[in-house]
Amino acid sequence: MQIIDGKAIAAEIKKEIAAEVNEIIAKGGKRPHLAAILVGHDGGSETYVAHKVRACEECGFTSTLIRYEDDITEETLLAKVEELNNDPDVDGFIVQLPLPKHFNEQKVIEAIDYRKDVDGFHPINAGRLTIGLPCYLSATPNGILELLRRYNIDTKGKKCVVLGRSNIVGKPVANLMLQKGTPGDATVTICHSRTANIEEECRQADIIIAALGQPHFVKENMVKEGAVIIDVGTTRVPSTETKSGFRLMGDVDFPNVSPKCSYITPVPGGVGPMTIVSLMQNTLLAAKKEIYK
C-alpha cells in the first residue's frame, strides 16, 4: 500500500509555477493576479481562503482578498463581481462557497466572466469540460487527475466508481475519468444516496473516488484487494486531541481500508492541497490567456 502524498505533489507544482512566473516577469510580462471574495465567517471557508492567499505568495502571484460581512446584499456582491470582471489587472477570481443562505449561489456563479472563472464553476466552463473542450477545470477534479498522473496510476479500461454527484466534484471528475487520455479512459459509475447495492458497486471498482461528505462511509468490506482510493471527504468533526477543537475526517475508514489498497489518499494531506494548487494552475492559464483570449 502506497500513500498518495498530495502535500508533496502540491509543493512540487507550486515550485514549477513560481519558476514559470519568474520567467514571465524576466521577459517583462505581468505578474498573475488572483482575487477572492469571502462573505461571512464560515470556519472552513476562512481556512481555505487563508491557504489560497499563502499559495499565491509561494507561486509569485499578486492576490487580493475582498471581505464582506454575511449581511451584505446580493446586489452589493454582484456589483463587486462586475467590477472584477472589468478590472484588466485581475486575471482570475473566485467567490468562496458556500455563501450565506440569502444568496442565490447559481446567480452569483453565472455573473462571473467565464474567462476569469478560475474555479471552473461557470456553466460555460462546466459545459466545455463535459464535451472535452479546453476550459478551466474544476479545482478538485483537476487535482485528483494530477495525483493519478504523477503517481503513474493506470486508469485505462479500469472500473471507476465515483461516490457523489455534486457539480463541484462528482460530476466533473466522472467526466474527466471518462474522457480519452491519461488519466482517463475509465469505465465510470456514479453512485449517490439513491443508488441500490452501493457496497456491491464499490466492491467491483478498481478505483473509488469518494466525494459524499459522509465520514467513514467507505468500509473495508466495500473495497477489493489492490483498489486505488481517492478520498475527497473533509468533514470537520469535534476532537479533544487538537488545539482547534476539531479535526478533518475523510469519507473512507482509513485505518481499516488502507491495508487493502494499492494506493490511497490520506485526509488531511491528500486531495486538499491539490485543490488549492489547481486554482493556481488555472490562474496562471488565465494570466497567459491560454484558454480564452
Structural commentary:
Helix 2 links the parallel strand 2 and strand 3. The strands form 3 sheets. Strands 1-11-8-7-5-6 form a 6-stranded parallel beta sheet. It has a 3-stranded parallel beta sheet with strand order 3-2-4, covered by helices on one side. The chain has 2 domains: 96 residues, Rossmann fold; 135 residues, 3-Layer(aba) Sandwich (Rossmann fold). It is globular and about 55 Å long. With 293 residues, the protein is α/β, with parallel strands linked by helices. The protein contains 10 helices and 11 strands. Helix 1 packs parallel to helix 10, helix 6 crosses helix 7 and helix 6 crosses helix 10.
Uncertain stretches: none
Shape, principal axes of CA atoms: globular
What is the architecture of the largest domain at the second tier of CATH?
3-Layer(aba) Sandwich
In DSSP terms, counting alpha (H) and pi (I) runs of 4 or more, how many helices?
10
Q: Got a strand count?
A: 11
